[in-house]
Amino acid sequence: MGDGEQAIASAPFDDPEADIILQSSNKVNFHVYSVVLKLASPVFRDMFSIPQPAPQTSTPIVEMEEDSTVLDIMLRLCYPGPDPRVTKLVQLTSILRVAEKYDLDGVVEKMGRDYAALADIEDEPVEAFAMACRYRWKEVALTAARASLAFTTDDLLRQEGEALKAVTGMEYHRLFQYHHTCRLACQNITKNISWVSYYGTREDYSFERHANNSVPKPKRCTDVKQLQYRTFSSWWCNYMQDIGNKFMLQGPTSVCLTDSSLLEAITASECKLCRDVANFGDLYRFLEQFRGRIDATIRSVKLELSF
């Protein structure tokens, strides 16, 4: 390309019949149809509706602040056809700035789908939630809020990010309100134990059956507690209380309901029969039910959003 020559973008932005040329900051010309951009953006609609002072002898050129890479992706997202793949978060952020500038709501929505795949939401849920609030991405907001449940509130307060500068105090508060509601709901699972039954049947788990008065004394637990008019081995009640406390102190999904933690609770029992782990072959099924109950409870908590 010699001095004074302008590079032309690749198809479909090389059409000589197009009625507008958008020139990138690095002097690449994009031949576009104004009707497409008018449909995509009210800013472009207003820009191209301004009457020209005199008849144009050549295609009008509009100088853009964006470079050719960002402009190419942005225009392809506006044009009919397959959407381009955005593979870098920094690229996505640049496209979002352009989309905001030109009121490209459709592009903003598409970037929300790509953001979920590119951002590290699991490690930085506060930043992701702030981005979701700024661009009104409901699914990203919910994903970020659920990811926050792996952190304590102190951990979340320490998280920072550029997007937080644009989030409102009420939106920030709603994330922590959701976090608290989930923690409280999970703790309530450990107190309201009406759901505890052997795989949804009327049969009791061994840690309740073992403590029942109808069991002959040689085989009956010698260390029991009452919980909501039901009798359980004390180690199980202590375990549930401990897990409930952890739900309130930590993010509930960070609390590990592991076989080892349950076995540790059993070995602390004062009952010799309880300490014989062979008596409790249904513990794994209980943990599976417990985990499922927590997942269902968290899914039932509504995240309040203003959009």
Within the largest sheet, what's the order of strands? Answer: 1-3-2-4
Broad shape? rod-shaped
What average pLDDT do the residues reach?
Answer: 90
- For the termini, the CA-CA separation is 49 Å
**Beta-strand share of residues:** 5-15%
What profile does the largest beta sheet have? 4 strands, mixed
Helix content: 40-55%
Number of helices: 14
Find the structural class using helix and strand composition: alpha/beta
Q: What's the SSE pattern? A: EEEHHEHHHHHHHHEEHHHH
Number of strands: 6
Poorly predicted runs are: none
| Radius of gyration, in angstroms, nearest whole number | 30 Å
Summarize the structure in words.
The strands form 2 sheets. The chain has a 4-stranded mixed sheet with strand order 1-3-2-4. α1 crosses α2, α3 (68-78) packs across α4 and α9 (169-191) runs antiparallel to α14 (283-300). Among the domains are: 1-84, Potassium Channel Kv1.1, Chain A (2-Layer Sandwich), CATH 3.30.710; 185-300, no CATH class. It is built from 14 helices and 6 strands. The protein has helices at residues 34-40, 42-49, 68-78, 89-101, 105-118, 125-135, 138-147, 153-158, 169-191, 206-209, 234-249, 259-267, 272-275, 283-300, and strands at 7-8, 20-23, 28-32, 61-63, 224-227, 230-233. With 307 residues, the chain is of the alpha/beta class. The model has no long low-confidence stretch (mean pLDDT 90).
